[in-house]
Structure formats: structure tokens, C-alpha cells
């Protein structure tokens, strides 16, 4: 799929990047461009010495981006560095340039979960869901200095989670207004519903690292002698420091049984009523992002209609849940 903001690089340009930033003599013997991402360019290179790497390049800074997307490569590099240090399975990071918007990582050997899904039994799939939950729970063991996105502008950085989260909501609603994206309810009503949960949000007192994009396409799995297992997580550009419960949003896109397995792996218990309500807030936020990005990604008409449709449906559902729980 062609995405308007994704950088267009030829093989020579990608090879030049690895020759400049990887140690030792670099002879490239294979090249593949990945075209299924919606933001960064990603190219895989096979080197003569047996190394397999992926080069990621951020969109040009002249492109129109959403407010939270500023310095996104810097965010991803920080997520990789701190996640790897905490024992999260992620590709090795060989080079990261936050300012230049370039990173070089290992190429994984497995496949994304959607590609393996058909080859898994129900029991295997549920076991993998639990493992995804357990491994992703390592992200929030990392503590940030303050809440919010780790970017230079500091616009969403705050000492309390409510202040940071309200700033995140304000930013995405500003993006939506600026691009005249469709909302099922007025922005002020949405802001009021979120603002009513200030005390609930402030129950979160430690700024934990949250990947916030662990949908199945960002989960790689491999099949060994004992069955399927998680190989690694990728794409940490949406990461922020906030409530660990926010990680559950992308772990629970599937059927209830699979979602329950992921939550069990992540928490080791059922969610409390307060956590359920906070989760609804974070689903509202993600759905607003998905609505907003349709105006800046350059999606085709079919992709735009599909994404707007299901994200709006989820937004309406979770706003109603919050209003109902407050009554």
C-alpha cells in the first residue's frame, strides 16, 4: 500500500545508510522493502557476512503530522533502548539517530501473528496470547521521569497522569478540528467525559513505559519443537509514560477468550472496576488517533472508510460506557 508520508528510498540510499553506520566491511547481497507500514520507511538488507538488518527512516519533517507524532523516531529509539534493558523481547538496536530519524535493527526470523494465526490451534493461540501479555508487562517495569510523550516539545509532559492525559486528548482533538475530521459527538462533549475522570486517572502515580501499539501486526512469533512462541515486539513509536493499563488496549482487539488470556498474562488477575474505566478512556484516545490520522496518511478511499468506520464505532461504545459508569 502506498502511503503519502512514508519516505521513498531506493536500494542505493539504504545501502549508504548501513555502510555509514554499521561496523566492519558491509557488502549487501539482498534487499527487500516492506510496504505494509503506515509511517516509517522500512527496508531489509542481507549482508554477505550473514547479518540481516532492517533500516527504518522517519517521514520528512516537512510533512503534515499529528501533534503526538513529532519526534516519533526519538520516541521509538527510547522505547527500544529502555524496553531491551528491561528484558522485553525486541530486535537488537544497532544504530539510532533521533535527530536524523534513522534506526538500524536486527531482522527477525519469525512472522507476524496474523500470518501464523491459521496454523495455530485454539490452545496454541491462547498460550501465545498469555505470553504476549506476560512479556508486554515488562514494558511498564520501566519508570519515566514524568508522565507523557518523551519528545523535545514537552507539550504533554506533566507531574500528574491526569494533566498529561488531558494534554494528549487536547492534542488529538486539535488535530481532528484542524483537518475537519468527522466525530460522532462534539469535541467539547468528549473532553467533558474525559475530564470527569480526573480523580480516577490520578490513582496512577508512577509514569510507566507503555508501548501502546501491540496489535498483532507488531508481534512476531516463531514455531519451535515445543510449539509457537513470541519472538519479539516491534514499532515502539507510539510509546509514552503513563498508566500500565493503557497497554491492554491493543492486546484486546480480538475475541473475548483471547482478550481474557492476554489480560491474564499481563495482570495475572481480573481487572478492577476502576481499571476497566481507565481502559475505556485509553480506548477513546486510541480511536481518536485513528480517526485523526486518516486525514494525514494519504490512505485510499476504501482504507479511510474502513478505519473511520470501526474506530468511530468503538469510540461511541467507550464514551457510552464511561457515561454509564458515571451515572
Commentary on this structure:
The structure is a single chain. With 327 residues, the chain is α+β, with helices and mostly antiparallel strands. It is built from eleven helices and ten strands. The chain has helices at residues 11-21, 72-85, 113-116, 122-136, 161-178, 187-195, 198-201, 248-251, 256-267, 273-293, 301-326, and strands at residues 28-34, 41-47, 52-57, 93-97, 102-106, 111-112, 208-210, 219-224, 227-233, 240-242. Strands 1-2-3-5-4 form a five-stranded antiparallel beta sheet, with helices on both faces. A three-stranded antiparallel beta sheet has the order 6-8-9. A hairpin with a 4-residue loop joins strand 4 (93-97) and strand 5. Helix 4 runs parallel beside helix 9, helix 5 packs antiparallel against helix 6 and helix 5 packs parallel to helix 10. The longest helix is centred in the C-terminal third of the chain and has 26 residues, at 301-326. The radius of gyration is 20 Å and the shape is globular. The chain starts with 10 loop residues before the first helix and ends with a helix.
Jot down its keywords.
Aminoglycoside 3'-phosphotransferase, Chain: A, domain 2; alpha+beta; 10 strands; globular; 2 domains; about 325 residues; Phosphorylase Kinase, domain 1
Give the structure's gist in a few sentences:
InterPro entries: AGP_Transferase (IPR051678), Aminoglycoside_PTrfase (IPR002575), Kinase-like_dom_sf (IPR011009). It is built from 11 helices and 10 strands. The chain is of the alpha+beta class.
